[in-house]
Design brief:
Elements: E1 2-9, H1 12-23, E2 31-35, H2 42-54, E3 69-72, E4 79-83, H3 90-95, H4 98-101, E5 106-110, E6 123-129, E7 135-142, H5 144-160, E8 168-174, E9 180-186, E10 189-195, E11 204-206, E12 209-210, H6 211-214, H7 222-233, E13 241-245, E14 250-254, H8 261-266, H9 272-286, E15 293-295, E16 301-303, H10 309-316, H11 318-328, H12 334-347, E17 357-359, E18 368-370, E19 380-382, E20 389-391, H13 394-401, H14 410-427, H15 432-459, H16 470-481, H17 487-496, H18 499-502
Parallel strand pairs: 2-5, 2-6, 4-5
Antiparallel strand pairs: 1-7, 3-4, 6-7, 8-9, 9-10, 10-14, 11-12, 13-14, 15-16, 17-20, 18-19
Helix pairs in contact: 1-2, 9-14, 11-15, 12-17, 13-15, 15-16
């Protein structure tokens, strides 16, 4: 099945802008097929598409007329620009290796007649015609390109209802998941477009339910609208939402900048004040009463689920399900799995706080921004709030001080932990001994989950870059297991997945 549309471009600039917008949806395996006579605009279209992937308007994209195939591995998505005009035989075509490149690259192919009989699941055929400044295009999409065109139409329709209708759109973040972001630039004004359609259900994993339902992952953009509105009302710096279409899953949000904690750490910046304020945010949040139900502008209610034991157990199950096979190449024995589950079933109830607070679950360096121009804890920008649950305050502190993606010196983390406890003691009733136990359990639970997630990302999704973080996460796990209350769980790991195995590089 395919979708065909006709588009008219009044100038080369319009043609280039359209190609750049299409690049926002590019993934490996997608093919752009460019047909038309000499001078019809095929090269103009391909160059604009690849420059947008490079996120650089002056990125050099030479014609592949003589090289036939030009690869770009430095672009956001690895890309191939091919010109098949001079290909005379199937043997010559096979020597180019386009089918192999298609596995890892997005292809832009001029003169594609030689491959139109290929079985291309995700193709966009652009037939260009016209003269002078005007170009007409008949665009036929299949597979993921159909979804991309439909989503782009929805976004453009949404933006026309806002002041951002003519804004320049550029890729910011996202992949093949159901959530992605773009930057919107209109003169000196900037904003973020959040593209978060309803999450599709995955396969059932337990009791007929998908993982996302048991782990209480956000189903759609309503979670962001609800959580951000309450954080802002409490004085915290979550992105303000300027416009939203709850049905389409689209929002224009405040752009908090690019001063991300993780980038600051990698640049060697002094993090003492930013980290101390981020700790103060959590200490303040722990003293507040947070709602379970948040009203939305459409009259509906967003319900914030509890971070219950079932959710915690399905998360730690990622280790026996994914990390064990990654480590040993075989399924985990039934006895080892049963003991593992039993130990966690004993520990996790100790983290079910009698007074639950909002737990953001992703409170760590990629999602924290330093807003130096603001005051107090408002200097900490907080993004990716959609998976917030009602849980124990120790979880977000462990998430922050045991960051999976950057090294945080243990002594520095310990000082920040003491700072948190001091703030909690001075502001209200705080049982540090019980908090210490919950922190160790939740830190171990989070590390266990992340090891499973990173193994799954590598094995299932081909995203092997996350494996480099495993030794760091394992070291956090080892620190948490050192708490006396986790002795039996430590024994399980020592016998079945010792540190030497967990920290082994691929």
């Amino acid at each position: 099945m395919s979708t065909a549309v006709n588009v008219r471009f009044e100038s080369a600039a319009e043609l280039e802008a359209y190609a750049a917008r299409l690049s926002l949806f590019a993934r490996p395996g997608m093919v752009l097929l460019l047909q038309g006579d000499l001078g019809a605009g095929k090269s103009t279209f391909a160059r604009a598409f690849i420059r947008a992937l490079a996120m650089d308007q002056v990125f050099d994209v030479p014609s592949p007329t003589f090289t036939i195939v030009q690869t770009y591995d430095e672009t956001r998505i690895p890309a191939v620009h091919a010109d098949l005009y001079r290909i005379a035989s199937r043997e010559e075509l096979e020597e180019l290796g386009l089918e192999d490149l298609l596995k890892t690259h997005v292809l832009a192919v001029e003169w594609p007649e030689k491959i139109l009989d290929w079985r291309l699941e995700d193709s966009l055929l652009v037939k260009l015609s016209g003269s002078g400044d005007v170009r007409n295009a008949v665009i036929t999409a299949t597979g993921n390109w159909q979804q991309a065109l439909a989503r782009n139409d929805a976004i453009e329709g949404f933006l026309r209802s806002t002041r951002w209708a003519t804004a320049e759109r550029r890729f910011l973040e996202g992949d093949a998941s159901f959530r992605r972001y773009e930057t919107l630039n209109l003169g000196s004004d900037a904003a973020i477009l959040m593209d978060m359609p309803a999450r599709p259900d995955g396969p059932p994993v337990k009791n007929g339910l998908p993982y996302s339902a048991i782990a209480h992952l956000a189903e759609d953009i309503r979670a962001v609208v609800a959580i951000n509105s309450q954080l802002i009302a409490a004085g915290y710096s979550a992105p303000r939402i300027e416009a939203v279409d709850l049905g389409q899953g689209l929002a224009v949000m405040e752009d908090l900048g690019r001063n991300v904690y993780g980038r600051m750490m990698q640049n060697g910046e002094d993090m003492r004040e930013p980290m101390a304020e981020a700790v103060a945010v959590l200490a303040g949040m722990a003293e507040r009463d947070w709602p379970m139900d948040v009203p939305l502008a459409d009259g509906n209610i967003y319900h914030v689920p509890a971070y219950d034991v079932e959710a915690q157990l399905i998360e730690i199950d990622l280790l026996p399900s994914w990390f064990w096979p990654y480590s040993y190449g075989i399924e985990i024995p039934a006895g080892a799995r049963a003991e593992f589950e039993s130990l966690w079933t004993d520990l996790l109830p100790l983290t079910q706080a009698t007074r639950r607070v909002w737990t953001l679950r992703d409170y760590h360096s990629p999602n924290l921004l330093w807003l130096a121009e603001r005051q107090g804890t408002a200097r900490v920008g907080i993004i990716d709030t959609q998976d917030c649950l009602l849980g124990h305050p120790a979880y977000d502190l462990a998430s922050m001080l045991q960051d999976a993606r950057v090294d945080i010196d243990f002594d520095f983390a310990d000082d920040l932990y003491k700072h948190y406890c001091t703030l909690r003691r001075t502001s209200g009733n705080f049982d540090q001994a019980r908090f210490d136990v919950a922190y160790a359990i939740l830190g171990a639970q989070r590390a266990t989950k992340i090891l499973g997630i990173f193994a799954r990302l590598s094995k299932r999704d081909g995203k092997h870059g996350y494996l480099r973080h495993m030794p760091r996460v394992s070291r956090y796990l080892e620190r948490n297991l050192a708490h006396p209350r986790l002795n039996q769980l430590k024994s399980w790991f020592d016998r079945h997945l010792p540190a030497a195995i967990r920290e082994r590089q691929p």
